[in-house]
Amino acid sequence: MIVPIWLLQQGVPGWLIGITIGCRHIGPMLLAIHGGAVIDRLGARRVMIVLATISAVTPLLYPVTPFIWAIIVLQLVTGLVDSLGWVGAQTLVTRVMKGDATYTGRMSFCTRLGLLIGPAISGVAWDHLGPWGGFGLIGLWSAGILYSVLILPSDIDHQADGKSEEQNKQWSMRMLIPQPADYIAAFKLLVLPTIFFVMAMSLLRHLGGGIQASFYGVHLKDIGISATTIGLLISINGAFGLVGSLSAAPLQRYFRAHTLLLFLVTGSIAFVAITPLLGDNVTSLMLASGARGWAMAASLVFLILMIARYADTDIQTCREKRWGSG
Q: Do residues 47 and 88 make contact, with C-beta atoms less than 8 angstroms apart?
């Protein structure tokens, strides 16, 4: 929410704002597979400590980088760090919780607390303290993520993947270089119909997320809505997401996971796409944001659930053995 408002304040045209926000996804698109391989090799906790440290520092650089090219570089870095941090978290959730819908729903519930609280206080910080308040709060929040990772059990990766602690501690510079074999192994998973379906749904889900992360805040700011109100709207998204996270398991008793995921992803896109039609009617914007939050949170549960349950265990096991010996 903060970055588009910052760009708007700098007088950046709308088309360039879209490009700048979109740059955030270049790193994950090119390096997510490699990042996942590194996480498997070195352990999620170790990698997430580095990522969380970077996340705590980079927001403080935005207020002192008024040049658009510098902001684009920061977007490239923060986008990759954020994406890989989430990959690490999902890795541990999938391995430790074994695809249980109840526990995965509870995890999603906790993440939605951040979406409930973060945007609201970020908007208030921006309105009262300016860019340093908004970005400083993000840095402080990321410092909390770092603390959360540090208090994870040091042997959590050993518990999850069954590797020896010595294997998890071994590393070399070669591990940090993208390997073609990692990409081949990942794309092989797409021959599994369920995995292909999940990837397609994930792509569409992020389409709506990209709209909200870029032009949603810019549009609302343009029609005279304050940063505090924009933050409140996104927080409502998070509040309804709490319900969506916990409602996933009960819904699964009555509907197939594939059908639910398709319905939820379609709804998450529709409820952000209708924003221009709602004008400055805050009540309607709140309802649309809430419905989107519910759909996004519930769909996340089913994405994780389906990957955990239907991914080819044999392929993953062989891939991990190869990575461990690399």
A: yes
